[in-house]
Amino acid sequence: MHNDLLNLVTEQRNAKSTHIDQMSTEEIVALINEEDQTISAAVRNVLPAIEEAVGLLVKSIQSGGRVFYLGAGSSGRLGFLDASECPPTFGVDRSLFQVVLAGGESAMSEAIEGAEDEKLQGHLDLKERQLTASDAVVGISASGRTPYVIGALDYANQIGARTIAISSNHNAKISRFSDCQIEVVVGPEVITGSTRMKAGTAHKMILNMLSSTTMIKLGKVYENLMIDVNVSNEKLEERAISILQRVSGCDAQQARDALIASDKSVKTALVVLKTGVTVEEAKRALDESKGGVKQAISNYTSRG
Fold it and tell me: What is the pTM of this model?
C-alpha cells in the first residue's frame, strides 16, 4: 500500500521546486503561476470524459434524480463550493446538487482524522441520503484511491445510480467503480503531495463544467444569460432587470414591472415581454416546454 502511494503521479517530487525553500518570494509565486498554466491543457485532454459525464448528469436530473458530490478533505469541500452556487445561479432546489463529505459537516472547517479511510462509511452516508437508481454520484479523489469514495461508488453501483469518478492519476482505483472516468493528470505538485494546488484547481474547473453545462442543457440559461437566477437580493434583482432589458429591448421600469408581476421569475417575465401574453399564459407555455424559454416564446410566436 505504501509503495502504491509513492508511485502515484500526485506523490512525485516536482524537479522545478526541489529548492523552493531557498527561493525568494518573487521566484516562488512565479513558479506556482508557471505550474498553474499547465492545468488548462490537462483539463483539455479529458474533455471527452467530461462531455460523457454531463450526459449522465442530464439523464439523472431529467429522470427526477439528484447529483451527489462526494469526497474527503479538500476534494469534498470543492464539491460543496460548486453545489452551493447552483441554487442562486440556476434557480434549482438545494436538494438537486448535494455534498457528502467524509467526516460530516464538521469536516468543512476542520480535518477529521481517519474519515477518508472509512470505506463502509461512504456506503452508509449515501444510504442515509436514500440514494436511488435515478441519482448520480460524482466521486472526487486526487489520489484516486480514497476508501471512503470507493465505498460510496461501490454502493451507488449496487443501487444502479450513475457514477462518475474524478481523480488526478492514471488508472485510478476509483475509476474501476464508475461509469465515467475523468483522470485529469496535472503532474507533481509544487509542494510534494499537496493536491489542493494543481489537482484541486483542475477538479474545481471540471466541477464548474459539469454543473454549468448540465444546467445549460436543461434550459437554465438563455443565450449566455442566467435566466433562472434566483432573485433573492438587491444585486440579483438588478441583474434580472438587466437581463430582461438586454433580451427584450424594454426599459428598466417595464422590466421591473414584468418581474414583479411574474413573482420574480425571470423566465416568466421574459416570455411576457417577448410575446405580450399574460403571466398565467407565460407560465403555462413554460410548463408545456418543460422550462425551455426559447421553445415557449416560439410556440406563441408561431401561433401569432
Answer: 0.92
